[in-house]
Automatic annotation (TrEMBL):
Its cofactor is Mg(2+). GO terms for biological process: tRNA processing. Keywords: Magnesium, Metal-binding, Nucleotide-binding, Nucleotidyltransferase, Transferase, tRNA processing. This is CCA tRNA nucleotidyltransferase. Residues 278-393 form the HD domain. Its EC number is 2.7.7.72. InterPro entries: Bact_CCA-adding_enz_type3_sf, HD/PDEase_dom, HD_domain, HDIG_dom, NT_sf, PolA_pol_head_dom, PolyA_RNA-bd, tRNA_adenylyltransferase. One of its GO terms (molecular function) is tRNA binding. Pfam families: HD (PF01966), PolyA_pol (PF01743), PolyA_pol_RNAbd (PF12627).
Amino acid sequence: MNSQDAPNQETDATTDRLALMARAHQAVGELSPILTPLAAAFTEQGHSLYLVGGSVRDAFLGTLGNDLDFTTSAPPEITRAILDDYAEVVWDTGIAFGTLSAEKHGQQIEITTFRSDVYDGTSRNPEVTFGDTLDGDLIRRDFRVNAMAVEIAGDGALSFHDPVGGLEDLLHRRLDTPAAPEQSFNDDPLRMLRAARFVSQLGFTVADRVVTAMTEMSGQISRITAERVQVELDKLMLGTHPEEGIDLMVDTGIAEVIFPEIPAMQMTQDEHMQHKDVYRHSLQVMRQSIDQETEPDLVLRWAALLHDCGKPDTRDFSEDGRVSFHQHEVVGAKLVRRRMRKLKYSKQMVNDVSQLVFLHMRFHGFGEGQWTDSAVRRYVADAGELLPRLHKLVRADCTTRNKRKAQRLQATYDHLEERITDIAAREDLARVRPDLDGNEIMEILNIPAGPQVGKAWGFLKELRLERGPLERDDAIAELKAWWEGEKDE
């Protein structure tokens, strides 16, 4: 190193710190019309109020939003009385945990009494103990970048508190724990998953000792409920860099515990390299799906990540060494449904993601020969409201480095979309329904409501997909002819 490098680097670091401090001071200062009266109310009661945690971190990063987290020396009953006088709406977020929330001029405010919790090492639920110092409250937090505070005085003055070096970690875009990571993760294993989430959201790296602890303690994540895991996974997936958060989960073994289908895609390639690295390909497809978004799309991102998760179970080699993954989309859809149900995802989410996985290979039949109008209708009907997402997924699934092949695939899909547009201009493709409804079927066939009506409706739906819209008289004639055949059986 040049003898002049160290002083220059220190000067640059000092400049960066000052810039971060100025940014945070401005961000918090802009909220003084809301925060100063609140701080003054606490001061009048002999207590202090501190902006804390992710709110301080985000103020430094220039991303402070409308959710503000505070801690205070005041006990919950005093906080409640202050908020009742101060805010339009107040609610009990968890008063047993010392937490109350309020809304003031569009700002969500959450205030928690100083905590000094004790964990039992079995669940992630602490024995709540109220503390008496700010530093004691801060050092129990998950990461040092979340263990900073800004005291807001009753006159609007601001003072910065950083007992564990959070600003230094922020400056280096690094995640590290206030205490030993083994202790932190034993107290609350969810913090390991939060590390992956923050990597995705913030683009931070993780300290080596934290990665080591996550790897050694990955099995502890099983202490966390499926619901809490799901929430963290979705926040990770909606981050700016979800592939980096997923990589951290896979590398440390956490993914093997909570979503084993993801690391399973790291299949050992055969000696002839007959298939891509499925895991890396899937991350690239997710990235290319994200690049097509106008706003974060959780369904699309999950489908892109998992579209090939059926390949490990379907890989097969022919006698000449060729590799195939026959019906991997069918197997993959089943795996997605099973795993997402275990993680307590909504029925709609499970159905949407698994259906996209199931349909993502359908397009490739279009390239093998000219699809009939009927095939195009079925493609649209099977996708339903997922069709815009399916378009993006299929286009993102092209990761070949062969430019001619990539251009050919994109041109082929362009052609399919043109066919869809052309048919949609002539027919109501958005709602491919039979030409006769249930009431008309019952009247025409003189049958009561029941399974036979559903069967007739299904016949007309297939007829609609195959031939397109029919004139009413033609539809009635087809229905009656079908019904005669049904009665003869």
